[in-house]
Structures are given as structure tokens and as C-alpha cells.
Task: structure prediction
Amino acid sequence: MNSTGLSSSGANARPGFWATALDELSVVSANIEYSQLECSLEGVPYWVELRPNDGARCVLCYSDNGVVTDITPPGYSVRSKVHEYGGQSWCFIDDGLVFVNESDQQLYFQALRGDLATSCRKITACTNARFIEPVWDGLERQIIAVEERHEVDGVVNRLVVISLETGEITPLHEGYDFYSYPTLNPQSRELAFIAWNHPYQPWVSTELVSLRLSDLSIQFVFGRDIEEALSQPLYSQNGELYVVSDREGWWNIYRYNPIAGTLEPSLCAPQDMISAPWQSGLRHYVCGDAGLSYQLIAHEGSEVYHQGCRVEPGSMSYCRSLHASKGKLYAIASFRDRMDAVIEIDTSLNIRLLTGGSMPLERGHCSEPQPLAFGEGDDRCYGYLYSAKNDAYRDNAACKPLVIFLHGGPTAATYPVFNLKVQYWTQRGFSVLDLNYRGSSNYGRRYRLALEHAWGEAEIKDIQLAVSSLIDAGVVDPHAVFIRGNSSGGYSVLNALCQLDLFAAGASLYGVTDPAVLNDCTHKFESHYLGWLLGDPIKDKGRYQALSPIYHAADIHCPVIFFQGEKDRVVLPDQTRAMVAELQDRGVAVEAHYFENEAHGFRQKENVIRVLRDELRFYQAHLTAE
Result:
């Protein structure tokens, strides 16, 4: 890592700033991420753990009688890079499993029993291809998967079948720009999948396609007559096809009626049931022995239903990667007061932790989310306030610093969950506002699409409204407001610093500085996203410049710190370097830190620790200067 900086360092910490057991190493080391949960035919749950202490390696594990065992041998990591954001990277087959290895993006077979259980056999050997969402077709002993082939003249996505024995790849369906959720009905030999074309994103407009494998004929397509975001198709045990659609304004569950040839509401509520599909293969509902199990995502926290009954959540606030087996529901759960966990919900609706769920902080020291709403009508936005839990400012009761968190995406969301990186700040005397500005998901389709041709404006108004509301309520010190964001959130941070005179300092983590440049060089998945967010880059060139921080660096007067991965293919490092140079030329206090071994998002333990320390030091320096 190398860094450049003009601002002062080594500021004097206020008394009590470090009086916490939650140091940077604890924040990073304890922050294991769980994903991609599936159950074997025997009902044993398997999942993937991303482990910061193991070089950010992704390891498959399973739980049997309360004992967690690793499956993935050393030297392998279960992670796909399709669409750059990845997703479901493994599946069961008859006598083992198939997974995507992170380093070469190829498919590997691993036996689960016998002498071969610790070895992996390479299936594919296509150096310019990546794979995701493998599905086992036991009748033909082949793997169905999404392939992303990187050619000289561009990237091509398609559905393929892959021979388990020879690794031969055969096209199954092509012609769409993107594919996801290949879902096989073994009885009818039909394959349902989601597909879409540019200029759309999967949360704006997609199609549900049914393909008969015997002759590769299309049985039906939904999503062409109306603009709807279809996602997560799923066959029940009796062959019924379900899918999630937002055609009525909310992501709800629909069932395909083969007689009428229509999608009929199966479970509808004025709440979303899934999150925005940035990754492929997410699962927020499941068809089990006793019907649908699902969650309803609300501003106050999710509700989970199993076998038609609401699960008493306790402090559980958000679930994903749902899977049902032998009457039990398995999920990855987030909580308000503890770390994420893999959970089991039995037929009596009792919740059992299989792994995770530790409490790094005593309940009295834990800052729990307070749901807030700002504004009215079409200007209304939402967020979660985490109050400071450290009396670092007992010598100055008027000083109530606030850090505003802006999530990336921008079509993503934050949830009312225990986040060690949030607690890190509350333990040091800062309150945190985790803002779901307009354009965030899980508030319905209309709210999600509010950033169309409004990026760089709508969310800035929401930031201003939220900060002003908290200042007026006496919650924060108007001279001690900081703002940070990653990726698109970094872009919004820089625009907020240009347009609003509200902040003591800001932090951009691999943030967009020049959308026009990004439009020319970003990856395929987002290559038309900016046209939706800002308009046509040629016809609306003036708009791009008006909302590009790089052209308005002169309007930034407060200190800014930047963090950037050198291997980032979403936001190229040159964008950050250009913005830093503009601010330096104008005498703004600026720091920039570049990480040679990071891409879009920081995964290496030592780098995440460095970011926390440097950002805190930077804020301290400019807080104590007031």
C-alpha cells in the first residue's frame, strides 16, 4: 500500500476515545460473512464463510449435530466473479459437489465421502470464461450453469451445459445480455431462468423464461408486455413454478398458472420480500414440505414466516439464503445486538444457532438501530440512527459528532442490523446515521426507481434533510458532522461536499468522481447503468459535468480522505488520483490511500484495519481543530 497526504496526522485523542475493547483487529477478525446456504438430501445444511483471517478465503462448511466442519481444502476459495459481484458458486451433485474456484474461475468437483473427500478435480479449462450458479442435472449427469466469456471484442453471457466427466461446454441458450437463476424442474425437464438486456438492470426490467430441455423450445416468457423486475424463480416439490415480481409495486411472490398461462398472486403485501439482485442466486423465500417460507422486509426490521406462522424474531432483524429441508427452515440471519449467524427454525418455530451469533459487546454497550423517517410524501427518506455509546465528549457536552454512512449501489439498501463497523464508531463517541436515501431498495418499486435521471441530486436533498432534522432535534453538533460512502456512495459523498456546507470532513472509499469516464470503462453489468441514473452521456453531457465532482472540486472546502484499490475494475484508480490532484491544487486538506492487492471493496484484513485507523485519525484531527 502507498499513500499521499497533505493533512496533519497524529491528532490528540480526546479522553475516552480509546476506552473500548472493540479495536480494529476485533472488528475485522470477528466479521465472518456467511452466504450461499443449501441443504443436502439428508437435510444437512452447508454454507460458505468468507474469512478475513484466512486471506479473505471463501470456505464451504456444514453442520452435523452442532459440529461445524470445513469442506474446502486449503488453496481453494469458493467464489465466482461473474458480473464482478458474483453470487451462488456451488451446488450438490449425486456423490459430491461442484464449485467455482476463485483464482481461475473454473468449475471443480469435490467428493464428499471416501478417500477423495479432501481432493478437488478440475472440470473446466476455459481460461477466458467464468461460471456461476451451477445446477446439477442428474438425469443427464451434466451441469447447467451461467457462463461469462471474455472475448477480445466484449463479454458474452449465456446458459451452458457442462459434462461432469469431460468438461465439454455446450451452449444451452444465448441471445440475452445477462442470465441468472437457472432453475430445473426434474419431473417436466423444464428450465426456468431470469434474463435481461441492456439498458436495464435486474431491479428495473427482466424476463422470466421457461425452456423445455428436450428440444430447447421456449414454453413461455413473462416481462415483455410490462416493465417488471422478475427474480428468484423456484419450483415446488410438486412442480409448481413460483417467481418474485414487482408488477404491483412491491417484490411479492407469484405462481404460474399453466392452464391460464398467467402469473397469479400467491403472497402479496405492501412490503418487499427480496433485496436488489446485485448478486446472482440470492434466495429470500423457499418452497418446503408445508408450503412457502419467506420474509417481509420492513423499515423497522424483517418478519420471517415458516409453515404459515410468524417466527418470533427476538433481536433477529433480517434473513437471507433461506432453505427448507425435512420440515425445518435454515437461513443466514442478522440481528440487532449480535453477529450474523446460520440458524435453524424447527416445526415449533424455535430458533437454534448453528454457528455465529456471538456478542462482541455487552448489550448495554451495544448501539441498536433506531428507525427514522425524514420528510413527507415524495421527499420522504429513511435511515437508522445508532447513538454514541462512549462518553468521549463528557468534557464537552455540546459536542455530539455524527458520521453519515452512504451505502453503495446506489440501488442497494442498509438494514437495522448489528454491524461491527458501525459499532466501531459508536464506541468512540460518534453517532452513526445509516441512510437509505431515495433509490434504495426495499421500500417498493417507486422508491427504488426514484434515482432515474436524478442521481447526484435526489440523494443530496435527502442527506441535507436528514442532517438538518437531526441538528434541529439537538441530536448532533452542527460543527461535527462527517460523511462517508463506498463506490456510488463515495460519489454521493463528494457531491454532498460540493453542494452542501454541512460537514467537518468526508471520506470516499473507491468512489466515482467522473461518471462520464466511468461510463466508458466500467464492466458489462453496469455499462448502461449510468444512462439510467444520469441520462445519455452524449445528449446529456452538460448534466454529467454538472453532477461530476471532478469538475466542482473548487466547491469543496472541507478535508477529504480517499481509499482506493489498485485492482478495481468498477471504479478505476485513475478517477481517484485525478480527484485528489484537483483538491491538492486548491489547497484542500486531503489524504489518499491506495491498496495494491484490493479491487472494488476491501477484503484483506490488514487493509480493512488500516482504513478504520486512518479514517478515525483523520476525523479526530479535524474534529479537535474546531
In short: The radius of gyration is 24 Å. Confidence is low (pLDDT under 50) at residues 1-19. The first strand starts at residue 2 and ends at 5.
